[in-house]
Known about the structure:
Elements: H1 2-32, E1 38-45, E2 61-67, E3 73-80, E4 88-93, E5 114-120, E6 123-129, E7 136-137, E8 147-148, E9 151-156, E10 184-187, E11 205-206, E12 209-210
Antiparallel strand pairs: 1-2, 1-10, 2-3, 3-6, 4-5, 4-9, 7-8, 9-10, 11-12
Amino acid sequence: MVRQSIQQSIYRTTVVSSLMMATVSILYPLQARAEIQSTQFEMYPVGQFVPCLAKPGLQPKVRVTVVRGELNDHLNIQLEGFKEGVKFDLFSIENTPQLPDGSRDPNFKNFGLAWYQSDLEAGSTSLRTIFLDQIFGIDTSGTRGPVKTFHLGFWFNNPKDAQACGFDVTKPTPFNGEHQAGPLAFVTRQIAGRAAKLGPLCTKPNGQKCDP
C-alpha cells in the first residue's frame, strides 16, 4: 500500500507538472506575439531651416505618440520651441532622406508616396486614422501595388517663412493643399537595423516588410 501510494503521488506530480509546462508553452508564444499598443518617437530637423522656425534661444523639438485603437489609431504630435504663427503640413511618407545618425542618405531620390495628414503649428495636434503597421495607399491604375508610408515629415506651409534660411520661393514644393509649400522642416529618420522604408509607424518589422 505504501509503494502504491508513493507511485500515485509521483503520477499526480508528473501530471500537474506536465500541465503547467503545457500552459506555459501555450501562453508564452501568445505573449510573444502581443501587439505593441503604443509607441513614442522623435522627429528631427533639417538643420538649414531651424533658425526660421525656432523661438530665439530655444532648440525646437518634436515628439510623437501613437496609441493603437480598435478601429483606428490616435496620434498626438507635440511641437516645442517653435515660433508662434509659423504653420506646417504633416505627411506620412514612404522614404526619409535621413540615416539613423542624421546624415543624408546617399541613396535617397525622393519621398515616394506621401499622404497629407494634417496642418500643424506650435503646440499639440491630435488626429485619428490608421497609422500603425497598416498605413498604405493604392494606385488603382496598376502602376504600383499597395504602398506603405511608415515615416512622417512636415513642410513649411508658406515658402516665405523659410526664405531667410535660403529657400528659393520661386520653386515651391507640392506639400500643402495649394501645392505651393516651402521646404521640409522635420522628418523621422531611418532606424538602425531595419530596412530603410520601415520607419517608426511600423511596430512589427520582419525583414524588408512590416507584418500587418
